[in-house]
Amino acid sequence: MTSATNEGGALQRILEDEIEPFLQRLRAARYTNETLQRKRTITKEFAQWAQQRLIVADNIDRNTAAEFVARLPETTKTRAALERATVRLFLKHLYEEGRLRCITPKETESVCANYLRRYEEYLRKDRGLAENSVHVYVPFVRDFLSSQGIKAGSLSATFETLQIRSFLITQTKGRSDEYTRLLAVSLRSFLRFLFFAGETDHDVSGSVPTVRKYRMSRPPSFLSGEQTELVLAATDRSTSTGRRDYAVLLLLARLGLRAGEIVSLELDDIQWRSGEIVIRGKGRLVDHLPLVCDVGEALAAYIHDDRGASSSRRVFLRTWAPRSGLTGPAAIGHIVRKALVRAGVQRSGRGAAHLFRHGLATNMIRQGASIAEIAEVLRHRSQNTTAIYSHVSFEALRMVAQPWPATGGIR
After folding, report:
1. Residue 354 catalytic?
2. Which of 94, 171, 186, 340 has a CA 20 to 30 Å removed from the CA of 356?
3. What pLDDT does 314 receive?
């Protein structure tokens, strides 16, 4: 019997021994019995496949799940997705339990992937950018790195002004002004990171041309007060999911929170005794907002009756297992879009969650609030950002508008 066969058999024993502990962890995360049975079948097949292929522990990495799924070319897309997700989850369990050695990124990733990973860490930890911003910047930088054919130790020679501008010109042909602006901002940020990290001798971020952004001339799309109340009233509060969604919608409508702020809200951020809610906004800013009555009641009802036990400290959890926090701002947008459809409210323009935030500001300015007051409620760092809401006060503008001069006198 060869050493490879011995190692393959040892791996199979490890995999088989960990199937039940793995399923027990999923059971604690509230996976259904039907789902657990399917995952048990898949993990057993994976253990047998690994033994047949004489795979050893040191050869298991992030590509193993894809190789396992590819063993049966005729597998349906649904089955393939289930197998891939199950094996990846199983391997994660094995790594966390110390049954397999987790290969570090430095051992497997390419030079480009290494820089991209470090750049993401820089954006999150050093710059304190919101996840939405990270998701915007990183794809632009990934495309840039892929186009440059970077090799280790050649960064200084790679990032030259003409090459950077050539990439910009190529990528922005036929693209919108906003796409061009975001690409330029992302590249400038990445090149600045490389200089701060000591990877380049000179800061070449200045070679990325600035794309002028003209201040919007049209008022932002928003929900009127009547539409907001209609959406809230149409939310089905007879189910646990409906009560969760109702609490989310109230945070948007009453406090004007951003989607990302709701996703990151934790149990300790709700200060019941003082009647405040702690908001962790953009740029690591922390604000305290009043916990208004209907918002507090909706949060209390959801947390007490519907949220259930979870190791996650996030306030809002997924409806289906694993019972962890919502995946990101897109989840809030999905909740809002469903609520708008139920209420029969048509939205105009892009975005969904921000319609409530814009509606809150619009209602305030129509009731006589100043730009400074709205900026304080929305927690804008600059009142220039808040100035866009001055366009929506059409009634006030009519009161100060002068008659249009015409031939033969004023009409």
Report:
1. yes
2. 186
3. 94
pLDDT band at 107 (very low <50, low <70, confident <90, very high): very low
What would the two tokens of residue 297 be? 């009641």
Find which of 73-77, 136-140, 206-210, 360-364 is predicted with most confidence, using mean pLDDT. Answer: 136-140
How many DSSP H helices and E strands does the chain contain? 19, 3
14's CB contacts (< 8 A; 6+ apart) are 57, 94, 99, 100
Residue ranges of the alpha helices (H) in 29-160?
33-52, 64-69, 77-96, 105-108, 111-121, 131-148, 155-158
- Mean pLDDT, rounded, of the chain: 82
* Structural domains for the chain: 3-96 (no CATH), 111-207 (1.10.150), 225-396 (1.10.443.10)
Cα(first)–Cα(last) distance of the chain, in Å? Answer: 103
In the residue annotation, 258 being an active-site residue is answered as yes
Question: Phi, psi (5° rounding) for residue 280?
Answer: -105, 100
Q: What is the mean pLDDT of residues 253-265?
A: 92
pLDDT per residue over 211-228, tens digit each? 776 655 566 788 888 999
Strand partners, 287: 279
Per-residue pLDDT of 262-290, as tens digits, reads 999 999 999 999 999 999 877 678 899 99
Q: Which of 282, 347, 379, 391 is catalytic?
A: 282
Residue 244 annotated among the catalytic residues of the structure:
no
- Of 191-195, 200-204, 251-255, least confident by mean pLDDT is 200-204
Are the C-beta atoms of residues 80 and 121 closer than 8 Å to each other? no
Which residue out of 25, 84, 380, 391 is catalytically annotated?
380
Residue 53 annotated as catalytic: no
Pairing of strands 286-290, 276-280: antiparallel
Alpha-carbon Rg for the chain, nearest whole angstrom, is 27
The reply to whether 304 belongs to the active site is no
In this structure, are residues 80 and 71 in contact, taking their beta carbons and an 8 Å threshold? Answer: no
282 is annotated as an active-site residue:
yes
List, as one string, the DSSP characters of 207-256. GSPPPP-PPP-SPPP---HHHHHHHHHTS-TTSHHHHHHHHHHHHHHHH-
Question: Long-range contact list for 241-245, CB < 8 A, 24+ apart?
Answer: 241/319, 243/298, 243/301, 243/302, 243/305, 243/306, 244/302, 244/306, 244/307, 244/316, 244/317, 244/319, 245/335, 245/338, 245/339
